Each structure stands twice: as C-alpha cells, then as structure tokens.
User: Fold these one by one.
Assistant:
Number 1:
Amino acid sequence: MDDAPQYNRVLLKISGEALMGEREYGLDPAIVDRIAVDLRAVHDLGIEVCVVVGGGNIFRGLSGAATGMERATADYMGMLATVINSLAMQNALEKLGVPTRVQSAIPMATVAEPYIRRRAVRHMEKGRIVIFGAGTGNPFFTTDTAAALRASEMGCDALLKGTKVDGVYDADPVSVQGAKRYERLTYRQVLAEDLGVMDHSAISLARENDIPILVFSIYEPGAFADVLCGKGQYTTINGED
C-alpha cells in the first residue's frame, strides 16, 4: 500500500487512562511526551490534526455518580479533568516546537480559548494542532461523543481512537485468550453486537456524518502515523458491508 497519508484532516481521541501509563492515578509525563512525539510525526506529514482527551485518569463522572454524587455535577468535574489533560498535552507538544491551541467547551479564558468552530478550523489551516477540552460542555455525554461531534464539526476525514490494544476484539484480549480481532466492521455491527469500542451516541454520530473510525494502539510508538498511511495493525469501522 502507498505510504502517502490517506487523510487530510483527522481527530485523535485519547482516553485519560492512556495518559496514566503504569500509574493508578494522574499523568505519566513520559507517556504524555511520547504521544506528543507521535502527534508531531503526523503533523510533520502535513495532516491537519485535532485532539480530544478524556479525563478518566483524574475523575470519571459515572464513577462519581455511582458513589452518590449528582450525575450532572460529577460530569462537570470530569470535564474539568479533561482540561487539565489538554493543557499537559499542549505543553508537551509546544516543547517539541509544535504550535498548539486548547479550546474549552466550558469558558475559562485564563487558561484556554473558548470553543469556536470557525476559529478551530482556521488554527488547523494554519498548521496548529487544536486540543478540545471539557467534552461537549454538557453533562450526560461522554468524551467519545465529544470526539465524534468535533470530528463532524471540523469536517474531519477520519476519527482515530487510540486504545490499549491494536484494534477491536470480540472480548477483552488481555483477559480472554484467543479473543478474535476484527480488521473491519460496519457501524451497524458495532451497535448490534455492542462491542463497546465507543458509546452508541458516538458511533451513531460518526455513521450519520460518514466519518470512518480507526481503532489502534496508542501505546505502539509511531502507530498513529502508520495508520494514517494504511500501515500497521488497526480496525476500520465504516458504513461498508
């Protein structure tokens, strides 16, 4: 397959847990720096990049709600956690010389720009990486749904989900020996089989806007650029049977 990039503008979704490394909580600076190196490699290919980062390494709204906290309040706390992660990723990228902007769906002008769609598009056109913090800005929506929403708003050619494993499996490959890995799935299969790679709202939104989802291992150095050039191990989710 040709090594040239197959996409012009993409969104990368990274879970908060991916930033923990081997820790039980918080950020592992070495992991953040390595992901920043992968983002720079894609940026250097001339691809326009935006990012949505989760906040589960600091606070997860559903867990807070499960302990008796009001769900909306817990979700807002989770959104603030994503802004912390976004600023960490911005810092790592700018240490590498990559111009980066953080836009927050919850206004906090001291640390981030407010989310403005046309401004975000312009940043990417000028070669800046844009990191979207605070999810959708609304409770009851996950950062997966925020990723699908922003990918749709930005007119992205693909949504990439960086996970702990190299694609979508029919069971957890870490705990289930012989779990089957999928090379390609349709949106309908993911929803019907409840494969859990992203929540149903995110899958449905990607399907409505015909945005392919590429699932790969964020822990594999260089995998982000490889996937965008059609190389390496990953699962493609799209509308084709």
Number 2:
Amino acid sequence: MKDIWEDWKRYERLVARLMADQLSTELCVTPNASILGAITGIKRQIDVLIEARHDTDNSRRIIVDAKRRKRKIDVKDVETFRGMMEDVGATHGILVCPHGHTPAAEKRAQTAVSIRLLPLDRLEDFDPTTWPRCSRPRCKNGRVFWDGYPEVSLGLLALDGTPTRLAFVHSVGKCDRCGVFHVSCTTCRQILCIPEDDETNVGHQCPCRLPWFWLASIEKDERGAQSAELHLVMGHGKFRTVNRRSLTG
C-alpha cells in the first residue's frame, strides 16, 4: 500500500531537507520535533528543529515553522511564533511560507525572526516516500531523514609496507515520526536502528565489522534539559557525537 502524504506534511519535510542541505555540518536538523515549553509546561511541536550537532548545548537552538497557507504571513503569525521561541528557548526563528508576508510582519520580526519564501511548485519533484522506512518495530509510517555524513579514516599497510588510509562514509539521521537514530554504512548498505532507550546499552555494528561501533544515550545540559545523542565510538574513551535531538523530558 502506497503512503499518502498530506501536502502540509510534504511541505514541512521539504523545508527540513533544504535546511539540512544548506546549513553548516556543525548543526543537525530534526523534522517534526517536540520540546517541552519552559514557560507553559506543555509539549510544543516544532516543524524543524536546528541544534548543535556535536555538543550537549542548547544555547544555539533555532526553530522553523513551515506555514503552507494561501495568504501572506501577518503580524499575528510572527507574534505567535515569537511566543513559541521564548517558550522553547530558541535564539532565532525562521518562518517559511509560499506567499510572502505583510510589511507589519516584517517590522515585528526584526532580527530574531527570518521570513523566507518557498513556492509550492517546489513540491512537484519532492517525494519523501522514497526515504527508507523506520526500522523500529513499533513505529508505523516513519521515514528516515538523513542529515549528517560522518567519515572515518582507517590507517592500513599495503603488502609492500606502504602506509595508506581508507575513508569510510556513513549517513546518520533520525525517524521523522518517532525520532529514533539510524545509521547507514555506504560500504555494505546496511541500515542500523539505534534507540537511545535501549537498556542493554550495547554498541551496534554493521556487517563490515570495522573497529568502531555506534551507541545512543540520553544526556543533560547544564540546565537539566535532556537530549538523545548518537555517538560514533572508535575505542576506549574515544568517541564523537554525530547527531542529537532534544527530548521533552
């Protein structure tokens, strides 16, 4: 049975895809994120969340709201969005729309909010149903959103004793529905599902059996806010955090 995606959902995923393609590799992108509001105490749905990739650091949090509407963004939209930014601790916000904005909305946005135009015709060639399905057994209809491509270099000796190095590239990302991390090895094409709430706390390796493995954990920042983090473990005490997503609590 073919997936049926509502146009608003496709628009949100398109915005996430464009953000991930354009941003610095130091930042990671999570579509359809949830953050617990510090002021309201309720779970806030974020169309696209942008955070620091390698550190348990929420001080550079950016949120994106994809508004697939037939009218322009107005001042009320900006004010509502700025309220959400304050609630989730975002330092900057981006409103994306297909039909522009009013002059009053631009004035209210000031420097804290950017308003960007993304025409609906960009959806014509965009098909998120081609993304891999989430491998988590209890997740239904989730798709894996790739947003990082860590490379591991391995030193080897040729038969004649000449030193050489081989580069192994991976894709890392998370499910756009349940948020669980996934890793794809471009060598063997295996996709691993790596939950952060796995009580066994064991590492995950692809069939290549190379000298590193993947592990997910839950970490806290200095204010106690929790994040799920995906780590590339390359030896005892040697690891890199390659992806993150904020948790609601």
Number 3:
Amino acid sequence: MTMTAGCDVCDCVGNTPLLRLKRVASAAAPVEVYGKAEWFNPSGSVKDRAALNIIRTAIADGRLTRDKAILDATSGNMGIAYAMFAAVLGYRTKLVMPLNVSRERKHILRAYGAEMVLTDPMLGGTGAIRKARELNEAAPEAYFYANQYDNDANWRAHYSTTAEEIWRQTQGRITHFVAGLGTSGTFVGTSRRLKELNPAIQCISLQPDSAMAAIEGWKYMPTAILPKIYDPRLADENIEISTEDAQEMTVRMAREEGLFVSPSVGAAATGALRVASRLTSGVVVTVFPDAGYKYMSDDYWG
C-alpha cells in the first residue's frame, strides 16, 4: 500500500501485502501458500475494494446523489466500508444487519455516524437482505440501494485490482486461487481475470458446510438467496469448511504465524491448505478478508 502526501482514505485501498504461510503450511512444502492481507485496507477489510467501486460507479452514473442515503444489507465489514467512505465523501448510510453481529462492528458503525437497522438473528443475512429490499421498495427516492449481492461493480473491483495484484505479486506463478463465497464478488471477479491471464489457473471456491455454520460473511449457497453476480461456472472445485475447522485455524494463525485474524481468514487458510496438501508443486493464493479485532468478544480464543 502506497501513501502520498495529501491523499485520503479512498487513495489507500488495495495494493495489500501477499503473505506467505510458513509454519502452518510446512507439511505442504515445497508447495507455496500465500494469503492477501486485506486488513491493510483503510477500514480493515477486503470490502473496501467493492464498496469504493460501488459508490464511485453510482456517483458517476447519477444513482447516488446528495439527497439519498446509501442503503444495503451487511454482516458488518461492507457496512463499515460504506460508512467510512460516506464520511469522507459527505453521504449518509443506512445499514441493515442481523442483531447478533459483533459489538465491535456496531461500535465502529456508530463512530462513523451510520444508521443501523437490526434484524432477527435467526434469519441471518437473508433476513437483512429482505429488510433492505423492503426499505428500498417503500421509499426508493430516499435511498441509493447499493445491493452488493447483485451489483456488478462488486466483482469488477476485484477483476481490476485484486487479480492484477496477485498476478503481479506472484510474478504470474500462481497455479491455484482459493476464496470464500459471501456476495461471491471476491471469488468471481478475481477468478474471471486470473483465468484470462492464464486459463490453466485452478479456481476453488469455499463455503460453509451447512446453513447453520458460523463463518462471518460466508454463505451456504444451496439455501441462501443467490447473489446475481455469482457464477458457479468459474469454480473448478468447491470445498466446504466447518465452523470448528475455521476457528481452530484462526487460533493457529495467531500462535504459529503471528497473524491475529478473523474466522473467515481461518476458513480461507484451511481451504488453501487442503488444496496445497494434494499438490507436489504449485503456488496457492487465497484472500484473508480481515483481522481479528472485530471479533474480540467471540469465545474461541482461549
């Protein structure tokens, strides 16, 4: 990430480090396993890429104007990104999320001045999406409904930035790309561009192993409201990850790699290592969505 005098947070998105896993990946050697450290983005997550592109695209085509609030459903990180950019650019945000999102995320959103609408935690992200749609349908003139799940500006952000950075940082040596599915924007955009750069690259999607799994930001696609931007044809394989495996790896990442990360990073690392364990050579790259600071109240650290 490069910063210059006079820049604002919008100029600090992307160009995140590519970190090599060593101790947790030692059994896979000589296969190389890397993770893109997306907590280096200004709001602390990979969602900065999509949020900024969605907002900039909407301003450019006139859908987002000063008299409208940015509205969307979120599990937290995307909402934080929207709220941060809105604060910089002078817009309002109204964010719909399940009641049980971590208190750290709620505190951050309050700090940015975002309005929150909290939905039934038993309905998860699906309930938040439905509520956001209801709000928009009731007063479409009041909102720019960002609709991250169906907005092409989501995956295009990763097509033009994440994929290009990975290609450059691996000097084109990447053989396997692995990423979790939430909105699917990271996986779809990055995979689409990487396959253009080298059709031999294998792209593996990850998702929870059930609808009840608790991996923040991820979706179990068989029962979820499918994002319109999701293209399952891009995946050469899909791997399911359990909550327990994700949490165990999250702790290992802190204690063996010195990386204090989120459960979604633990899940991504688990998937990348499963892929690497089957290979005799190769360069496996995954995306580490965010650090662990928004999950301090979770109870698996001990």
Number 4:
Amino acid sequence: MKNQVKLFLKGVKSYRQAFTFLVKNKLLYFFLFPIAFNFLIYFSGLSVLNDFRLLTTQYLESFLESFGASEDWWILFLNKLFSISIWLLSKVLFFYVFSLFGGYLTIIFLSPVFTYLSEKTASIQKGKTYNFNFSQFVNDIFRAILISVRNILLQLSMVFALFLIGFIPVIGWGISIFGNLLIVSYFYGFSFLDYTNERNQLSIKESVKIVRRKKGLAIGLGLVFYLCFFIPLLGGVISSFLAIISVVAATISLEETSDN
C-alpha cells in the first residue's frame, strides 16, 4: 500500500517533469495536433447538433400547422421556445457526452501522435535510436485503439455497478463518487502507460499485469488528466492538450520505475 502511494505521487508529480522535458527538447510543436483535433471534433459535432435542431424544429412547425392557425402568437411563441430548448439541450448533451468519453476520443484519434511521441520521449531519455517500422507503427496504433475500447467497456461495467451502489444512502454515495474517480483515473492512466509497454514488446496481457502492479502510478497519471473534464466548457479542450503531457509523463515515470 505504501509503495502504491509513492507511485501515485510519482504519477502526479511527473506532469511537471514532462512539461519541462517538452520545453527542453523543443517538442512543443506536438501541441499543434490537439488544436487540429479540437477543431475537427467541435465544429463537426456542433454542426451535427445544429442540423438536429433544425430538423426537430421543422417537424414541430409541421405538426403545429396541421392544427391550423400557425400564425397565432402562441403558436409562434411555442415554436420559438421549443427551438431554444432544443438548442440548449443539445449543447448540454454534447458537452456531457464529451466529458464522459472525450478522453478516449482524444486517445483514439491522436493515437498515431501519441505512439510517435512516446517513442521520441524514450529515445531522448535513454539516448537510444528506434528504427522506424511502418507496419509496426500501424500495429501500435491499432493496439492503442483496442486498449481504449477494452478500457471503455470495463470502465462502463464498473461505473454502472457503482451507480447501483450509489442508491445506498450516505455510504453508497461516498463509495460511488470515490470509486468512480479511481476507476476512470486508472483506465486513463492505463492507456497512457501502455504506449511504453507496447514499445517494450509486451503483450496486452503482460501490460495488464504491469499496470495492475503499478496501479498507483496509473491512477496518479489518469487523475490529473481526468480532473480536466470537470472544468466547465473548456475541460475537453484543455484535456486534449494535457494528453500530450500525459503521454510524456507516463513514458518517463514508467521507465524510471521499471525496477520497482
């Protein structure tokens, strides 16, 4: 338990070390990728939601017109109120869903960047050159996606169990909230750590064993990343930038604790 606490603190503190590493080694250009990612996600996502709002509004207009007197003030007022309500609800729903799965969307869509960044970090840290292999690079990307899907499914099943526990007054509430925080943080941390495990040619099964043994490190890394999603409105945007630091932090911290 004491060792897990040390690993947890190591995971949290490694973010500062990782950012210094990025600056020192002139790797800040990697932050350009989250900019492109956010542009794609938000503009495409909001565009879809806007189309949905227009379709539902048009449907309501057609529905009200079937009763006649479509120009009555109360009909116009009701239609406007419904349009605004749909607009607000769609935006809230979008940000809520993104807060739940935005981290994994970031990991999946930017997995090619994270795979290369982790390798680049290890290369600088260990003074070792890794020969680029395109087929292996593609395999690494698919593995990162597979790990993300695996973690999402496991996380959802555990979170659902905690949701049921949350119906128990007082004690259940505490267990549900605290347990959810630990579980989500662990699986995010797992995803970041696996880039190093994969590069070391470990199977997914072997990677699971290592991360379980160093669960404190995974939780510490994942917690910092997960907490970003609690920042109103900008949480998803900030987390995509923080993910760059998370990959570096996970690579450095796992290499430094490889003998533990």
